Amino acid sequence: MMRAPQRSAPTARPAAFAIPGDIATLTGGYVYERRLLESLRALGREVRHVRLGASFPDPTDADVADTVAQLTALGEDTPIILDGFISGAMPTQSLALVHAPLIAVVHHPLALEKGLDDERRARLHRTERDNLALIEHVLVPSPHTAAMLTEHYAVPGERITVVRPGTDAPLGPGAPEQPPLILSVGIQHPRKGHDVLLAALAQLPDRPWRAVIVGSSWHPEHAAQLARQHAALGLGDRVRFAGRVDAAELSGLYRSATVFALATRYEGYGIVFDEALAHGLPIVSCAVGAVPDTVPADAGVLVPAEDPSALAAALTAVLTDPVHRARLAVAAARAGAALPRWRDAAEVVARVLDDAGR
Fold first, then answer.
1. Which of 64, 166, 208, 275 is the most exposed place for a label (fewest CB within 10 A)?
2. Is 288 exposed, middle or buried, given 0-12, 13-18 or 19+ CB atoms closer than 10 A?
3. How many other β-carbons are positioned within 10 Å of the β-carbon of residue 76?
């Protein structure tokens, strides 16, 4: 009896991922997109990395022209995933020239960035709203961001897919150092609230502790402001700005830490919180944006933003009460073990790519 030949699964269409600047930049958004790209390829998908100019979200005319040229050259049948700086800041009339199926990754709307004047905030909101009307589907890291796009940018819910970031298993067991290490991870940007954290650290009781703040400089003037504040508060070598570190050093810092702290003013998700949970670290942060949805209530203490005294009180409680700290750590480790992996996130995105343009 002859056996019927087996049919192979259809080959997925090639796709592209358009990202401005250096994909190796150590911010949550870049880490999210780089890991998604790597994980899609690990699934066997052909996904081309299209590197665009670094001027976004304030694109030069040259970068806008180059973006149109590169994206239209991919053809009209290639689904293209757009970084949120592209989908949020590309001039709408230029984006309309790209007729391929477009999928945007929106970490948080650009108009919600801190420090914008009213005119620029309104312009960014208008551009992102109009651009999202041209885009077939939107990927977001959290239900909070999805709700923002539906309520304020008129994106129908059926065109949004929540793709929670994946996590990696820790490279080794935790070994908290003495004195206790307070770890903060976030680019030196006003939105990350490192100025609030410094003010809080200056209020901690006179007991042994040290803090490391990991993250590259966003703008020289803001970095200089943080350095001046650090000196004025007399924090000395108890607080170290480590700048950008490699993956191995960052993993070691997570394993050595006693508590994770980020005085953020807003997060559309906050991938560093998942990293802290994966390492079983108690979290002290602020009840803003998607943070309450990302940090389980029993794994962290969330205080109002812009309140150094409340942040200092929460840190003091974690550092001085071992029972409280242990409860938080156990809950964090439990939540961290249940987090999705990057392959899980890539499989969700792969389904969106398969449906694109259909």
1. 208
2. buried
3. 10
pLDDT over 50 at 153, yes or no: yes
The two tokens of residue 237 are 């070598």
Three-state secondary structure string covering the chain: CCCCCCCCCCCCCCEEEEEECCCCCCCHHHHHHHHHHHHHHHCCCCEEEEEECCCCCCCCHHHHHHHHHHHHHCCCCCCEEECHHHHHHCCHHHHCCCCCCEEEECCCCHHHCCCCCHHHHHHHHHHHHHHHHHCCEEEECCHHHHHHHHHHCCCCHHHEEECCCCECCCCCCCCCCCCCEEEEECCECHHHCHHHHHHHHCCCCCCCCEEEEECCECCHHHHHHHHHHHHHCCCHHHEEEEECCCHHHHHHHHHHCCEEECCCCCCCCCHHHHHHHHCCCCEEEECCCCHHHHCCCCCEEEECCCCHHHHHHHHHHHHHCHHHHHHHHHHHHHHHHCCCEHHHHHHHHHHHHHHCCC
State mean pLDDT over 206-228.
92
Q: Is 321 left (phi over 0), alpha (psi -120 to 50) or beta?
A: beta
Among the listed residues 152, 103, 93, 95, the one whose alpha carbon sits nearest the alpha carbon of residue 125? 152
Q: Is the pLDDT at 10 greater than 70, yes or no?
A: no
pLDDT of residue 184: 98
In residues, how long is the chain?
A: 358
Check: CB of residue 20 under 8 Å from CB of residue 52. yes
* Predicted TM-score of the model (pTM): 0.82
pLDDT at 1: 34
Q: Averaged over 23-48, what is the pLDDT?
A: 92
Q: Which two tokens stand for residue 133?
A: 């009307």
pLDDT at residue number 269: 85
